[in-house]
Protein 1
Amino acid sequence: MLNVGLLGLGTVGTGIVEIINERRNTITGTSGTDIRIKKILVRNVNKTRNIDTEQLELTDNFEDILNDQEINVIVEVTGDLESSYRYITAALNSGKHVVTANKAVVSKYFGELSALANEKNLAFLYEASVGGGIPVLKPLKEQLELNEITEVQGILNGTCNYILTRMINEGKDYGEVLKIAQELGYAEADPSADVEGHDTLRKLRILATLALQADITEEDILLDGISSINATDVENIRKMDSTVKLIAEARKTDKGFTAIVQPMIVKNSNYFANVNMAFNSIAFKGNNVGELKFYGAGAGKLPTANAVLSDVLDIALGTYRKGNPLGKEDLVNLNESISGQYYLRISVTNDEIRDKVEGITREVLLDGEELAILIEEIRLAEIHELLAGLGLSKGSYFLAKIAD
Ligand SMILES: NC(=O)c1ccc[n+]([C@@H]2O[C@H](COP(=O)([O-])OP(=O)(O)OC[C@H]3O[C@@H](n4cnc5c(N)ncnc54)[C@H](OP(=O)(O)O)[C@@H]3O)[C@@H](O)[C@H]2O)c1
């Protein structure tokens, strides 16, 4: 019997209870083990919920779960960063396996929690933390034993992808689509973690650290979100027979690594151009297996709960990869060397700005109240220096890499 202490009964927690109830007989048949949710931690036990809680034992005291000797797996789906860190460390220290969907806690404490689980000979699994319902971390860990992974790339945030898809496909304004996304529950009331790219960055931190086998922290990743895109950009990008995506990518070279989250303009024929709405996709390259691509629902109650339960099932079956999956490669951060061709639109124009950008311009797309240009091959750091030198704030321009 696998007794689960479930931390959180919100969107994902509810999905977990629903799937276990619906699939109990099949799960027992496959794993030979009954998976039972013994206790559930919530903030407010009296809250009205979208699920029948009569058969569920709710508590607002984590100690009730921690001290329950029958509970052998903790499933953390609260979303709170510091309290979840405390819950996870306490659970591992008291001999309980841990599964989490919380990218923030995995990203911030990746090394420490992986080492602790390894020391205690316990599972610490987090499939749902990257790509929601897409099973990508388990195949990645498997391929790492046979391959050197040199590159990982992905669309990792459904909110951004939904906004960009509707802007490009329907010519809608950023603010209008963001409002629709909020009404549909795709975007939070405060959307900054998504649209400024922080959520994508945390997922890249996890993916890149695993894939490149080096400690690539949040601070190691260059970040630019999508919040400054406007109707002019949409029009220009459409004329280029292209679309725009928020792409996370990390690459290993002989000398080190690069890691970046940025808007990227991709031709309509490009694979990522067809990953639309709230879907996510991740691709990685191994020296033997070649390129592998994964596609699916990046979030949502049932897909995310499904990914969490795949981890729980691996614990029940004993099929999770033992040992610390983090590598020890000492790679140098080469983000300063990142280069490419870029699209730049600036909302305020004057002669100084025109003069300064002239030297890097390959083609002027628009010169009026706004200035939009294509930039010839250049180091990204040089563009950042130029923009900072002009005193332009992030909201007054939109910069996107043009995919190779
Ligand atoms: N939603 C998705 O599609 C999705 C996709 C991928 C990953 N995730 C990750 O999954 C996690 C959960 O997301 P969610 O959307 O299910 O969140 P949610 O709907 O806000 O639910 C959070 C649940 O946790 C409880 N909770 C929050 N803070 C707590 C604390 N400090 N102590 C005890 N209980 C606490 C809440 O209790 P009350 O009900 O009493 O308020 C609630 O039941 C997050 O880390 C999120 O990033 C979510």
Protein 2
Amino acid sequence: MPELPEVETLRRQMEKALVGRSVKSVDVRFGRKIFPSAAALVRAASGAKFKAFGRRAKLLLAHLSNGWTIVTHLKMTGSYLLKKERETPTKHTHVVFHLDKKEQLWFEDVRKFGFLKLVKTADLEKVLFEKEGYGPEPLDPSFTFKRFKMCVTARPHKKIKPLLLDQGCIAGIGNIYADEACWYAKVHPERTVGSLSEKELKGVYDGAVKALCASVKRLGSSSDNYRDLYGEKGGNVPHLWVYNREGKPCRRCGASLKKMWVASRGAHYCPVCQKPPRSAK
Ligand SMILES: [Zn+2]
């Protein structure tokens, strides 16, 4: 599933390639995941220009010149692809934005969990972000260690790994970067927040920020079928510390990495560097 670095990569590429470009027309080929309706999207986007591209948590925001924003959640397999006008959409292309300069923008989604939502740009905060209760953005300068500590220590009985996945605590972190942050901090994913020392908490914070920044620099992790605007894979997977590396040597101590289930998600960790909580021994 695309997480913060993957959505941010797409946002940056779209910002560079599409700001100021006109949408001539819109073809909806599968409209069940468009809200309030496919017809509303066609009406709002046809004839509009892309004004800017934003991101909140894992949501991609395409701001149009006419006061509307197309909010996209890519979920498991959603993607945007920039194509030449002559190229033929696939069976997974749900929306085609016909652009100027003989190009088109496809929204594709094999598993159909992703969605597009049309929202007035001025109402985004109120109708969407506040309602979703998103926590701070980890790449924002205001996301300091103090802020992080405040977010997590308010829930001392929660296990650290599922808490990192909680979008209300920190926005945009998913399974990959939560595992990376715990490994970096030498903290077992099942440790409760209340059991973590100041140093361990700082390690989780530093690890999360480092892992996210490194991945953004390398255009994201294509550990599943994530592709960028040009259909290319991100370059971060070979650099991941633990995610999807079970059975391979820990990059710190050489021990064989393991995978376990924590709050019904796969968690990758080093059994030597990341000691289990005392009660679980
Ligand atoms: Zn290790």
